[in-house]
Amino acid sequence: MLRTFMISSLLLLGACSSPEPADQYEAAVFNPQRPSQDTKQDAKRQPAAVLRYLAIKPGMTIADIKGGDGYYAELFNYLVAPEGKVYLHNFPSYIDKHSEALDQRMDNHRLANVQLVTGNTNDFNLPEPVDLIFLSQVFHDLYLQLDSLHDRALRSNFFNQLKVNLKPDGKVVVIDHAAPAGSEHYLTGKLHRIDAKYVEQQFVDNGFEMVSSSNILANPDDPLKVDIWDSQVKGKTHRFIFVFQIKKDPIPEG
After folding, report:
1. How far apart are CA 172 and CA 245, in angstroms?
2. Is-cis flag, bond preceding 252, omega within 30?
3. Quick check: 140 and 196 in contact, CB under 8 A?
4. To the nearest 5 percent, what fractions of the chain are helix, strand and coil?
5. Which has the closest alpha carbon to 81: 56, 98, 53, 118?
6. Cα distance between residue 32 and residue 174, in whole Å
7. Which pLDDT belongs to residue 93?
């Protein structure tokens, strides 16, 4: 009887212990300092796979643009340490929306490598050029309104800010909710999605080239024609990951 109890207790302890991290990316995700509101999102956001794909390394400088409450900024913090830097950037309206969560996350300087930055579309207000600009599920916000001269100027300024805030070999990462192929941005205002091919073309038209893409966050069961908050897809939309860099002029022959 005692032996059975001891075996059962050991099995229970094993089930409750954290899994052994396979690499630095899982170690960041399993970090016990992470807030519970973050870890509850992990199954849907698959951060270890995303971070591994992006090859985040110590010493990197990263700008998490419109980073909200800092879910990814905290993970970046662990991975770029001790010499790297993470700029958790928000527009003023995002600061107001996430002020309480940001205060808790940054309390007592618990994220030594993270600095809060407030900027806007015309000026990101970053202290320095960075290795990586990270746009997680926010790029479509530029296309919520249908085209006007003001909207086009806004987008042009945004792409210019991407360029001036990147190091020469810096990358831009876009993660976003996919819309039906060919829909461009015409469903974005209604569904908060955007056509993946359209995103790629927008970057190409503004002087970038795609370096790589990933289907880590793909969901073939997503019908693509429902709002991202619809119960059948909330938290599990079909998302694409694109990595861009500024297009370099070809080296002349001879």
Report:
1. 6
2. no
3. no
4. 40, 20, 40
5. 56
6. 28
7. 78
Q: Which two tokens stand for residue 119?
A: 């900027």
Token pair 């930055």: residue:
117
Band (pLDDT 50/70/90 cuts) for residue 45 is very high
Tokens of 187: 């469903």
The highest-level CATH class for domain 33-246 is alpha beta
The tens digit of pLDDT for each residue in 167-224 reads 999 999 999 999 999 999 999 999 999 999 999 999 999 999 999 999 999 999 999 9
Tokens 């019908």 -> residue: 223
Q: How confident is the model at residue 254 (pLDDT cuts 50, 70, 90)?
A: low
What's the CA dihedral at 112, 115, 116, 120 to 10 degrees?
A: -160
**pLDDT value at position 252?**
66
State pTM to two decimals.
0.89
Amino acid in position 96: D
Residue 8, CA distances (Å) to 3, 12, 27 in order:
9, 6, 28
Can you tell me the distance from the alpha carbon of 169 to that of 164, in angstroms, rounded to the nearest whole number?
12
The sign of the torsion formed by the CA atoms of 160, 165, 169, 170 equals negative
Query: What dihedral angle (degrees, nearest 10) is formed by the CA atoms of 84, 90, 91, 97?
Result: -170
What residue type is assigned to position 161 of the chain?
Answer: Q
- 239-246/114-118 β-pairing: unpaired
Residue 37 confidence (pLDDT) above 50: yes
- Quote the CA–CA distance of 177 and 27 in Å, as a whole number: 27
DSSP E strands in the chain: the ranges are: 61-64, 85-90, 114-118, 130-136, 166-177, 208-214, 239-246
Tokens of 253: 């022959």
